[in-house]
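Contributing new records

If you add data, match the layout below exactly. Sequence lines come first and carry their own label; structure lines follow with theirs. Keep one chain per record. Anything else will be rejected by the validation script.
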Amino acid sequence: MTSTISWNLIASYYSGLPYFRDGLMTATEPWSGHYEVMGPIWIAAHTTQFSEIGYYYLKQGYGAGHLASGGSYVTLYDPKTNDFSIIIETMSHNHSVCIRPSLPDYTVAPQDATFVLNGVLAGVDELNQWTTYLEYGTGDTSEYFLDSGTVTVNGGKFTVFLPVDTVMTLSTLTGQKKGSYSGVPPSAPFPVPHYDTFDGYPDNGEAKYFADQSGVFEILPTSDPAVGKVMAQVVPERPITWCDDANQPNTLIGNITWTDVFAEVSVLLEGEGTAVFLAARMSQGGCGVAKATGVFLWLDSTGFYNITTDLGIYVHHMQLLCMA
């Protein structure tokens, strides 16, 4: 089985969190509706627009391999129609870092690559060409998924020139297209002031704009009509986690660049040993949230409060139950 996992399909989480913009598309402003169609979606198109369920990757030596001056190629084959597509890449090592596991050192140079078609691939006179030229530096000057016309095949043989950091698809298939989009809402900062009583959400729903880092926060009703609904941390025990996140459940909202900010919450502490904290200027989240610094105001069910500069100083088990 062969697959490529794109994580995330749409990157929708705050700037400052790990893997920011690590997706085929980016949509980080639900309050504005702004989104960006990123380069990876067009790199994916070099494969996805030329494949269907039931296609085969040809074996190495028969339709896949490495190029003489660096790079590689694979061939997708449709056994029903004998259509095929050759996908070529000449990505340099410095521009191939977003992959696991990391790649060993290698070099790539511009080259003329000659291909010889045999067997079921022979007999075609031309192949349709789609090309991406990746450029790195100030701004994105890359050219993505260009319709580059056709490549002539003579006697089952053809040659293409491949610059460094190029992705190319050569195919017998037709009908491919680089999609277009318009009317993208303009980007806007997080809307302030922001206020939420949580009363308009369904039970067990999620409050808008919050990004859980440790624990899980849901909207729940309370038995007190004067309180109404709260945003509660609902995981009773720390699970087995795949990274060293914080012992204290926490969720983020807002903008990491804020410095002078006023935040106020109403909290409901139920039972002994429960506590809450409100923090500003959180330095990091995700797997690094346990090491986050900032300004932390702590309050427990006995009325004791404290101010710290990180999560590690206060040792009680914390549960953030309500923010408004």
